[in-house]
């Protein structure tokens, strides 16, 4: 093949951009070269960084600086506001590209099978995160009437949700939150936020830094019950073998032995409480029922039969994200991933689906930190390039780059570009500068398209 390898990457979040970076840094980028098109259903790139990271975590959002450098490369084009499968199919992609990489992530809430999930006041964390991060496809308002709120889960998303609910709107105003989110949070009545985990401190999935940051707010008092500090042999082994788990447990221990302070909002971290039912009256949440658990020696827990009803008026479940099934690709419903072998998609008969690959959360599930996605991308790209070198890629029928733009125009797709992102970025920064902030995020899709020159 004398021309560059043509690769389509569906999803322009960290996973997709890391895959582009791996392709650019490969030997193939020198001979015969690579040509990469990133397709993103949002008008703006960066996926999880823009629409999944809490606005008061600019440190994590700094990853965008590194991703920016990849998208600046001449081998890469961005097509935003383009939906798979709404605007093109897998057959369309095979026509224009030698290989297709799916990096569509996980954006929906994992289900939790307990009674009361459907009550008013019962929310998925992903929905709330999308709202406070200014996602264009969710409602502009959020019901925040509950004075006492429960958050189910002990991962970083649970911490984000609990922290946003416990902070004041004025604390969050210096961030990039849009005006509608600031207005909504001004109406927030929450003064108590209860976070529940079914296992113990050693099994919590918090990142140590994110956990410690809870205590930095001048309005949030973090409270841990000393009775929830308990370890068995399995827990001790976890602490010895996992530095981060040990740091988390140590922080929780220190909070458990201190006196409760006077900050106006209380954030309680509860362990050994397994959610059993969301209680309702007249169709609305009026409480949460949990069963007390105890360690069984291995780090796992068993029920004790002791039940507690907690007085809360809203429940947020932060028990994990799940990916959506993709047309023309196999899908494992239980894991919420596409079956694969080192990134090569596996057909139902166990053979490799020609020229189709996955990376990121659609590949391994919604676990790990953003940085772990780079290793995923490297593995997947290595397989793609090996298939190219050994002649296992069928080759695109119409590999000319202009054929893609012509196809999208014929379909009437109003797509954004990398140059368009610079225009939108400049506009958002100007909005922020007028208020002494780094950025104010544009929310409405039409406004995003307009400001991107689409």
What does this structure look like?
- The chain has 454 residues and is of the alpha/beta class.
- It has two domains: 5-107 and 323-415, NAD(P)-binding Rossmann-like Domain (Rossmann fold, 3-Layer(aba) Sandwich); 108-321, FAD/NAD(P)-binding domain (3-Layer(bba) Sandwich), CATH 3.50.50.
- The chain has 17 helices and 18 strands.
- It has helices spanning 14-25, 47-51, 58-61, 63-71, 90-96, 125-132, 156-166, 169-172, 179-186, 208-213, 233-241, 243-257, 361-364, 372-389, 401-410, 418-433, 445-451; strands spanning 5-10, 34-40, 76-80, 99-102, 108-109, 122-124, 148-152, 192-196, 220-224, 265-270, 273-281, 284-295, 301-310, 314-317, 321-322, 340-341, 344-346, 352-358.
- The protein has a seven-stranded mixed beta sheet with strand order 3-2-1-4-18-17-16, with helices on both faces. Strands 6-14-7-8-10-9 form a six-stranded parallel beta sheet.
- A hairpin with a 5-residue loop joins strand 17 and strand 18.
- Helix 1 packs across helix 14 and helix 11 packs across helix 12.
């Amino acid at each position: 093949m004398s021309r560059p390898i043509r690769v389509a990457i569906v999803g322009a979040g960290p996973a997709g951009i890391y895959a582009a970076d791996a392709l650019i840094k490969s030997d193939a980028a020198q001979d015969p070269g690579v040509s990469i098109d990133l397709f993103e259903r949002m008008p703006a790139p960066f996926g999880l960084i823009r629409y999944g990271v809490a606005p008061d975590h600019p440190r994590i959002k700094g990853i965008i600086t590194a991703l920016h450098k990849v998208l600046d490369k001449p081998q890469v084009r961005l097509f935003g506001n383009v939906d798979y499968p709404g605007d093109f199919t897998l057959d369309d992609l095979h026509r224009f590209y030698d290989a297709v990489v799916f990096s569509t992530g996980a954006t929906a809430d994992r289900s939790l099978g307990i009674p009361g999930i459907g009550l008013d006041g019962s929310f998925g964390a992903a929905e709330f995160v999308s709202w406070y991060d200014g996602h264009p496809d969710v409602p502009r308002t959020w019901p925040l009437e509950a004075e006492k709120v429960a958050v189910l889960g002990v991962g970083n998303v649970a911490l984000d949700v609990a922290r946003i609910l416990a902070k004041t709107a004025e604390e969050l105003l210096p961030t990039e939150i849009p005006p509608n989110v600031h207005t909504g949070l001004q109406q927030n009545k929450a003064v108590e936020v209860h976070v529940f985990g079914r296992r113990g401190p050693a099994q919590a999935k918090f990142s140590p830094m994110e956990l410690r940051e809870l205590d930095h707010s001048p309005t949030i008092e973090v409270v841990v019950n000393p009775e929830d500090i308990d370890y068995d042999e399995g827990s001790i082994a976890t602490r010895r073998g996992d530095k981060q788990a040990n740091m988390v447990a140590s922080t929780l221990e220190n909070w458990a032995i201190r006196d409760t302070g006077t900050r106006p909002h209380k954030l309680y971290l509860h362990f050994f409480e397994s959610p059993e039912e969301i209680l309702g009256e007249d169709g609305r949440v009026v409480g949460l029922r949990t069963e007390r658990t105890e360690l069984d020696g291995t780090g796992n827990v068993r029920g004790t039969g002791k039940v507690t009803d907690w007085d809360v008026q809203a429940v947020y479940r932060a028990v994990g994200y799940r990916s959506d099934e993709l047309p023309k690709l196999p899908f494992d419903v239980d894991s919420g991933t596409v079956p694969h072998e080192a990134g090569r998609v596996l057909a139902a008969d166990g053979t490799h689906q020609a020229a189709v690959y996955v990376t990121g959360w659609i590949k391994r599930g919604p676990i790990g930190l953003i940085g772990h996605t780079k290793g995923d991308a490297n593995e997947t790209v290595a397989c793609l390039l090996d298939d190219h070198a050994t002649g296992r890629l069928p080759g695109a029928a119409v590999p000319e780059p202009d054929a893609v733009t012509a196809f999208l125009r014929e379909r009437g797709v109003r797509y954004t570009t990398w140059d368009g992102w610079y225009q939108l970025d400049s506009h958002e920064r100007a909005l922020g500068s007028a208020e002494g902030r780094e950025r104010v995020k544009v929310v409405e899709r039409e406004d995003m398209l307009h400001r991107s020159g689409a």
